[in-house]
Amino acid sequence: MQSKKIREIVNILKEYNNFIITSHVNLDGDALGSELALYFILKQLQKRVTIINQDRIPYIYSFMPGIGNIICGDMLGNNFVLNIKPETVLIVLDSSNLERIGNIGIDLKKTKLIVNIDHHPSNTNYGHINYIDTTSSSVGEIIFHLCTELGCQLTEQIAKLLYAAIITDTGSFRYANTRAETFHSAYLLAKAGANPHLIANYIYNNNELSGLKLLGEALLKLQTDLDSKISWTIVTREMIQHTCAKEEETEGIVDRILSIKCVQVSVLFRETGEGKIKISFRSKGEFNVDCFAKIFGGGGHPNAAGCQLEGNIHTIVEKIISELKRALDSFQFKYNSQSFSREI
Ligand SMILES: [Mn+2]
Fold first, then answer.
1. How far apart (Å, rounded) are the C-alpha atoms in residues 152 and 145?
2. Which among 144, 180, 257, 277 is least buried, having the fewest CB atoms inside 10 angstroms?
3. Residue numbers of the domain that contains 94
4. What is the pLDDT of residues 214-248, one digit of tens each?
5. Same domain, 285 and 169
6. CA 30–ligand 1 middle distance (angstroms)
7. What's residue 336's pLDDT?
8. Does the pTM of the predicted model rise above 0.70?
9. Rounded to the nearest whole angstrom, what is the distance from the C-alpha of residue 119 to the centroid of ligand 1?
């Protein structure tokens, strides 16, 4: 923990009275769990708090305590403008840059301060106060420490939310961001009332049939290059329409195709509603997909990243896969010769 920085945040949370909390577009468990936990923490301190996000809440997170308090900018229309009280602090969670919050209908110039709390290495330090802990598994884990620093009570509600944030961002303690400290936080959250079995059921055993049908279609289009250790597939508008799947139901596909033996990097290409192609990368081991996604204006974490491009999906697949093959072939050559020289 960067204790000086966390104290700076503690002071702001104590000093000010009006807060708006937001996070990134394409909401995930870490974004929502952290937002709501911080909401309940600030409520304990008798503060006025509003949570507003651009996007709608994916169905699987509807179990989260307090979820009905979140304002969804997407449902309010483009002309919606939130009235901001003077001296309002905007807290942005889990968002590596300010553009990632999308349109939440607020005039940022009217806010007093922006507090940026994140764990992405690619964070651009856009806040007046920036608390970036890249060793933390999730923002949920950071909010957990913040709760302790503030002397707030770790209620059952907060524990459930933070536990959900941690398991979604660590893939249930499987990803490389899982450390001994993560289990320690999870242990304390379970002791405070988070039930691992129930929360896992809500998140992982709560799929709509449409989501599985879409996964089936995506698997039919699966391609691999096992010499380069890549797997990839596509999700077109047509596939979304005829399976009646929701956008959020594309989320797990890229992880599923990474599970193939020998595959080091998996890629999902998805046509979004606005004629853009959203590309998600996952990797096992040392190949850094954050660096690779940055070449195309994206970013994320070393083992999970993404970017967005405009154009025809098939042209983009060809371009990205050939770049990726080149990058992986030279990476494997370097990596193999390094481990060879280490051995001798
Ligand atoms: Mn996160």
1. 10
2. 180
3. 3-204
4. 999 999 999 999 998 999 999 999 999 999 999 88
5. no
6. 5
7. 58
8. yes
9. 7
